[in-house]
């Protein structure tokens, strides 16, 4: 059995990690990042939303710390905030969208836990992209679902992510 040293939340918040770590109930959790397909997809998605930020009144934040509960801080690959949302060092209001890009070392258990944290926190749109399979999923409390169209959509807005165009960045 492996044991881990728990650290206080204040210590986590006052430290810097490269890459940033998540904080879950006193435990630091490393994030799986750094390989080219993950990085390329993250850049393509960030650029897409950056280019539409004024039109859609959003802020795009790669690797923004999000406090999903008093003892949990997650770091989604990308999140979208409403442009009028208060600008804080750590997002403490649910993002409009949280986007996770799978890395080869991500496990189903850790991914499900992260998605559940976003949804429980109140994030209405959680998207999961798999660069290896070139698939995207809409995450809900009922599970993972393939999008009905070739886009990921934020209902009630003009905000969308064109999957074929985004995945073509990997070619």
Automatic annotation (TrEMBL):
Highest taxon of source: Bacteria
InterPro entries, per database record: Nuclease_put_TT1808, Restrct_endonuc-II-like, Uma2
Domain Putative restriction endonuclease: 18-142
Protein's recorded name: Putative restriction endonuclease domain-containing protein
């Amino acid at each position: 059995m492996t044991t881990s040293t728990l650290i206080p939340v204040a210590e986590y918040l006052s430290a810097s990690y490269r890459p940033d770590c998540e904080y879950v109930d006193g435990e630091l959790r490393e994030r799986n990042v750094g390989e080219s397909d993950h990085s390329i997809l993250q850049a393509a998605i960030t650029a897409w939303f950056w280019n539409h930020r004024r039109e859609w009144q959003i802020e795009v934040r790669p690797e923004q710390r999000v406090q999903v509960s008093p003892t949990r801080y997650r770091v989604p690959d990308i999140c979208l905030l409403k442009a009028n949302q208060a600008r804080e060092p750590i997002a403490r209001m649910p993002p409009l969208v949280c986007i996770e890009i799978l890395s080869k070392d991500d496990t189903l258990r850790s991914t499900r836990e992260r998605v559940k944290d976003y949804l429980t926190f109140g994030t209405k749109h959680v998207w999961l992209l798999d660069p290896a399979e070139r698939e995207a999923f809409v995450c809900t409390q009922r599970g993972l679902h393939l999008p009905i169209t070739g886009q990921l959509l934020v209902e009630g807005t003009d905000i969308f992510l064109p999957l074929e165009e985004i995945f073509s960045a990997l070619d």
